[in-house]
Amino acid sequence: MFSLPPDAEATSPPEASGLARDGVRLLVASPHGLTSTRFAALPDFLAPGDLVVVNTSATLPAAVDARRADGTPVVVHFSSPARSASAWIVELRAPDASGPVLSAAVGERVALPDGAWLRLREPAGAHADGVRLWSADVALEGPVEAWLSRHGRPITYGYLRGRWPLTDYQPVFARDPGSAEMASAGRPFSDRLVTDLVTRGVGVAPVRLHTGVSSQETGEPPQTERFRVPETTARQVELARRTGGRIVAVGTTVTRALESAVDSSGRVTAAEGWTDLVIGPDHPARVVTGLVTGWHTPDASHLLLLEAVAGPDLVQSAYRAAVAEHYRWHEFGDSCLLLP
Questions:
Q1: Could you say which of 107, 142, 182, 255 is the most buried, measured as most Cβ atoms within 10 Å of its Cβ?
Q2: Number of domains comprising the chain
Q3: pLDDT digits over 121-161, tens only?
Q4: Domain-ending residue, one of 151, 174, 205
């Protein structure tokens, strides 16, 4: 589809370069053409009656320094509670951020800070060269989330320069801690921008989806994730649809949550639980008609979700323009508004 230029990765938050959160670039893609602007101009491209749906999940400090049984240092990424057991899904990563550790084995014990430890129970996700995700028994004092708040830090990858505080990984909508990594499509929003939307007659409604560690960037399918669509949001979505408004999801997480709450009649209803829905060619979006998103790498399964909302031609046009115009990728990068 496209090749990512070597200098296209955002290596730090935009604030480090003197930009406001909503100062990142925004590419608006619709059947009428492509427009390059700044994220603060988002309200100019929406209309009264449209509904913007956001994710209230907050980011956990989910990366922890640890040691394997032979003393080798490793970083543990806590992804999410396991769906059907009293365990957590975890990933072992190299301390130099070079990639996952694939040499672990069932039963291996990993030492964590403050006398805590975990034991790998069984594989929870494959990788081309070994096991990347594990279901693990965790022995520590109190809830894992509270323990992470004392001993963890935000998950980072090799393209970032330096480490940044957890506040830099929290969108303005963040209320409910539970995501291993930031629901980054919502990061460029500011309080002022939300006020601009509301005063122009654009609705804003919440859902929650706690996302696990990135797997889509290696071509793996999305993990099973916890979500909630409140009754009030379901009613707002259906009202907007009946009156001709667009349902604009802020990110693939919101898209997955909303589409997981569609009943057999095609209506969005209140829903809560775990979703393993994979939106793509075999399951196109039925409710979401617009999408605010960051830029995904060429092998990301998220691209199939974008195409399921906006169509392959529009998505491919947007990505060609983003590459040509030197947009920035990843969680601190630039944004796209797809309005098919």
A1: 255
A2: 2
A3: 999 876 667 889 999 999 998 999 999 999 999 999 988 99
A4: 151
For 291, the 3-state DSSP assignment is strand
The mean of the pLDDT values for the chain is 93
Tell me the C-alpha to C-alpha distance, in Å, between residue 265 and each of 129, 269, 284, 287.
Answer: 43, 10, 15, 12
141 plus 242 within the same structural domain: no
* Residue in this structure with the two tokens 């965790």, named with its chain if needed: 138
Of 26, 30, 322, nearest in space to 190 by CA: 26
CA distances to 109, 321, 327 from 6, in Å: 38, 16, 12
Compute CA distances 190 → 21, 187, 227, 254, 304, whole Å.
Answer: 7, 8, 24, 18, 28
Instruction: Say if residue 300 is in the same domain as residue 328.
Output: yes
* Parent domain of 279: 14-59+164-338
Same domain membership, residue 330 and residue 196: yes
Question: Using CA atoms, how far apart are residues 271 and 46, in angstroms rounded to an integer?
Answer: 27
Is 217 within 8 Å of 132 (Cβ atoms)? no
Give the domain CATH number at 218: 3.40.1780.10
- 54 and 186 Cβ atoms separated by less than 8 Å: yes
Tell me the whole-structure pTM to 2 decimals.
0.94
What are the Cα distances from residue 15, in Å, to 87, 153, 168, 205? 37, 19, 9, 27
Print burial letters for 65-87: b (CB count within 10 Å at least 16), e (below 16). ebbbeeeeebbbbbbbbbbeeeb
Q: Which of 121, 151, 181 is the last residue of a domain?
A: 151
Is 5 inside any structural domain?
A: no
